[in-house]
Protein 1
Amino acid sequence: MDVKTGFFYLFSLVLLFAAFRVITARNPVHAVLFLMLSFSQASAIWLLLKAEFLAITLVLVYLGAVMVLFLFVVMMLDIKIDALRQGFWRHFPLAALLGAVVVLEMAAVLMAGFRVSEEPRVAQVIGQPLLEVSNTKDLGKLLYTQYVYPVQVAAVILLVAMIAAIALTLRARKDSKAIDPSEQVRVRASDRLQIVKLDPTRPAPAAEAAPEENKA
């Protein structure tokens, strides 16, 4: 067994352990941390398979953005774990059925096997060494030549989603206590200070009648 195969089995074992701990961890924060570990191991396996673009995308998008944001939300919210566990056995049959379907699909894929092909290489030029193909470079050329219009459409959709998210968060809220600086500049003394004239002396209030000591 060579070094590459040893790293593959190591990353696979850690990935399976982390994925198992994601669904068995009782603390949501621990589950998110194990999910981040599983994503990192998956990106390492993609690097071994020479899929550099997928590995970098998984690290940047999921580990660098989605998982960090999800972890921040989970740590900031007051999640009541006891309330989440109340409906476990009620939804267990459906979850077990879906899990069995996923296991059967994975077994069918593994039993069918994978097509193993040689790594693509550039035709050797006389007098020059044989060069390997860069997956990321070829993928970039393909996206911005043959699939340039779908890429632009996807970019526009993401831009619209970004603008919509900003518009939803910046809408006027009644419970907000934000202060407008222009109103502070235009304020006048009469708006903040009101002088009330009071008499220098005021008569003392009449004493209350004492209660009768003896009642008939």
Note: The CA atoms of residues 35 and 158 lie 25 Å apart.
Protein 2
Amino acid sequence: MFAHLSALVGGLLTGAFAGLGCFIGPLVIWLIKKDTMPFVDDQAKEALNFNITLAIVGVALLLLTLITFGFGALLTVPVGILIGIAWLVFTIIAAIKANEGERYRYPFTLRLIK
């Protein structure tokens, strides 16, 4: 549960740089507990993969905006808002499921760390 919630706290604390703060908490939890707690290992990797995926999407949206000299913001800003809302909802759902002892899998996530 803390792996998922640490992403939420990191995102809220870093504000505009939420893509960076979101994966530091799950990374620290995963590095500390990966050998001793299999459930925490699984869920921290899941939270880490989800937040890295969203950071990649955020960078892609930013690049699209910059490449189009700001005109792409007409598309990227609404998409970014929707992704931000989805991030919040999925993170809360994951924390609740993990608290209940269920393994949660985020949708549309690149499994970069296995």
Note: The radius of gyration is 15 Å.
